[in-house]
Every structure is written in structure tokens, then in C-alpha cells.
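Might you be able to consider the sequence and fold that I enclose below?
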Amino acid sequence: MFGRRVPVKYVLLFSVLLALVCAAIAVYFAQGHNWIAAAILGVLAVWFAVDAVRAWSWKKK
């Protein structure tokens, strides 16, 4: 965006944080038997975790 690239360390950090937050909220909703919200947040947690792994592989190069 705007001709600049976001540094990889920020992508990694925010992806890990968002994955943890989404996973924690998904567990909270699962304990309350709200399965649709838990599933959506679980998918988002996996999405951000995969993004963090991809950012980690960029950082290694």
C-alpha cells in the first residue's frame, strides 16, 4: 500500500497476536455453546496462524 512494504517482523507479530486473540475468544464462545461464532473465530485463528508461519518463512530467507 502506498508503495511501501510492511516489515516482516510486524506481520509476524500481529499475526501471532491476532491468532491468539481469535483462538481465546473462540474457546470462550465454545464454552457457551455458541458454535457458529466459535467456528468462525476458529477459522480466523487458523488463518492468522498460517499467516504467521508464512511470515516466519519470509523472515528466515
